[in-house]
Design brief:
Domain 2, N(10)-formyltetrahydrofolate synthetase, Formyltetrahydrofolate synthetase, domain 3, twelve-stranded mixed sheet, three-stranded antiparallel sheet
Length: 570
């Protein structure tokens, strides 16, 4: 979940708010969108005229079809100036279809927390949106409710087991499984449950995470079918006994009913863009504590149905792209054909030391300095053997000299930079990038490889990421953390990939260090085992898994007008 404030590129002529643009769109019946992909109407489970789920048995029928080309959209290190990764993903899908290609996009589902908080929705913006945006940004098809219910069912079963005798010997002090809700609510981060007497169970400390930070969400997005989902859910470690033996969801017989709650949610969601092109929006794991990518189910389905599939990963390439490559692609056997790195002149100026209130003034030197950040991301993507192109998400105040500085810097890496105006012009404004992506995907020299092999020791995997991608000299941790690495290595988890949890605002663990800092050290504060998701979360610094609302939340301006229409959503 990208919690940075995303500024939107200014159009040549202001087209109105995102919700006004979305409401003015002419949507095609979802059966027609599915039909264009070869999905028969009886394989769609419809939520009204414009939203549907693709039934699981249809995906079984697609098994023998050839996969299309997978394109990742990632970005430079986020700044308050905004980059526009989701908007570019939507625009590129439209652009590919405009040049005659059969293309689909795959996005994460928005969380209610940021919708009512600071960031707003996650359906794109301007003339590069997925629609119906109100439904997508709010309850959609109820997937997040199902995921939250499955998670909290396990929470209830834990306390119920303890209440009725605690046969498994769960140590209430070592329960690691919190409760979740899909809303920003800082007051629930740390709570006490079981108060009020014997009939209410045993008092203990507990807390809430936001639903997108749940391991159930990560499992949901990595599962390949219902059977795989149930097995993964059973491997969730909920805590430990007094002699520190792990207790799993399977020990509580929880994986069956949790899967039942998730059965329908596992069907990928199909909607459309403003230009009536197909969009799969499914799942939405936190981009720090988890891998920040949409579901494997949706991606694999799209690859069977389209010749080109455009997807995104959360935050900058050092977090999002790395986890997409090292976790999602590794686990699902995906082989990306090309990558798009999104940048804006404004964001590069911030990396070059310009304050937010001065971003409207031309500053070519600051752009050049900020391009050090872009350059490192380009080098990092190249480490995975995936050819890249840069999308310059244009604002009206960007000058030709500033854009030329970006292009000159990219040329040093043998990478083209394409000017994109999809926010203002839709697919027409990104056709040049679309043609380059097709060229890279069809004729590029993609030799995808993860950053490290499965058999590399856990500690060395983290060190490889820090040194190779972050520009760090080394990693450090106290003895207790290093011992835990050893326990997981010896306990049979050494083949797991690493999920780094650190600030998204810097290559370092200090969010104030912009650009491309080098020769820093990455301190490891904590390591968490996600047994069902099958990765190890390495926490570097303070990571927020239950955000709070800002002083003036977006919720303050959202309302239903006299015509029954939602206003203020963005």
């Amino acid at each position: 979940m990208d919690v940075s404030v995303v500024a939107k590129a200014e159009p040549k002529q202001a087209p109105g708010s995102d919700i006004e643009i979305a409401r003015a769109a002419t949507l095609r019946p979802i059966r027609e969108i599915g039909g264009a992909l070869g999905i028969p109407e009886d394989a769609l489970y419809q939520f009204g005229p414009h939203i549907a789920k693709v039934q699981l048995n249809r995906m079984d029928d697609l098994a023998g079809q050839t996969d299309g080309k997978l394109i990742l959209v990632t970005a430079i290190t986020p700044t308050p100036a905004g980059e526009g990764k989701t908007t570019t993903t939507v625009g590129l899908g439209d652009g590919l279809n405009r040049i005659g290609k059969k293309a689909a996009i795959c996005l994460r589902e928005p969380s209610l927390g940021p919708c009512f908080g600071m960031k707003g929705g996650a359906a794109g913006g301007g003339y590069a949106q997925v629609v119906p945006m109100e439904n997508i940004n709010l309850h959609f098809t109820g997937d997040f409710h199902a995921i939250g219910s499955a998670h909290n069912l396990l929470s209830a079963l834990i306390d119920n087991h303890i209440h009725w005798g605690n046969e498994l010997g769960i140590d209430a002090r070592r329960i690691t499984w919190k409760r979740v809700m899909d809303m920003n609510d800082r007051a629930l981060r740390d709570i006490t449950v079981g108060m009020g007497g014997v009939g209410n169970g045993f008092p203990r400390q507990d807390g809430f995470d936001i639903t997108v930070a749940s391991e159930v969400m990560a499992i949901f997005c990595l599962a390949t079918d219902l059977e795989d989902l149930q097995k993964r859910l059973g491997r969730i470690i909920i805590g430990y006994t007094r002699d520190r033996k792990p207790v799993t969801a399977a020990d509580l017989k929880a994986e069956g009913p949790m899967t039942a709650l998730l059965r329908d949610a596992l069907m990928p969601n199909l909607v459309q863009t403003l230009e009536n092109n197909p969009a799969f929006i499914h799942g939405g794991p936190f981009a720090n504590i988890a891998h920040g990518c949409n579901s494997v189910m949706a991606t694999k389905t799209a690859l069977k149905l389209a010749d080109y599939v455009v997807t995104e990963a959360g935050f900058g390439a050092d977090l999002g792209a790395e986890k997409f490559f090292d976790i999602k692609c590794r686990k699902a056997g995906l082989k990306p054909a090309a990558a798009v790195v999104v940048a804006t002149v404004r964001a590069l100026k911030m990396h070059g030391g310009v304050a937010k209130d001065a971003l409207g003034d031309e500053n070519v030197e600051a752009v050049r300095k900020g391009c050090e950040n872009l350059g490192r991301h380009l080098r990092n993507v190249a480490q995975f053997g995936v050819p890249a192109v840069v999308a310059i998400n244009r604002f009206t105040k960007d000058t030709d000299a500033e854009i030329a500085a970006i292009r000159d810097h990219c040329a040093q890496f043998g990478v083209e930079a394409h000017l994109c105006t999809h926010w203002a012009d839709g697919g027409e404004g990104i056709e040049g990038l679309a043609r380059k992506v097709v060229s890279l995907a069809d004729h590029g020299d993609a030799q995808f490889r993860p950053l490290y092999p499965d058999e590399e020791p856990l500690w060395e995997k983290v060190r490889t990421i820090a040194r190779t991608l972050y520009g760090a000299d080394d990693i450090i941790a106290d003895k207790a953390i290093r011992d835990r690495f050893g326990l997981y290595q010896e306990g049979g988890y050494g083949h797991f990939p690493i999920c780094m949890a650190k600030t998204q605002y810097s290559f370092s663990t200090d969010g104030n260090l912009k650009g491309a800092p080098s020769h820093h050290v990455v301190p490891i504060r904590e390591i968490r085992l996600a047994g069902g998701a099958e990765f190890l979360v390495v926490v570097c610094g303070e990571i927020m898994t239950m955000p709070g609302l800002p002083r003036v939340p977006a919720a303050n301006t959202i309302r239903v007008n006299e015509r029954g229409q939602i206003e203020g959503l963005f």
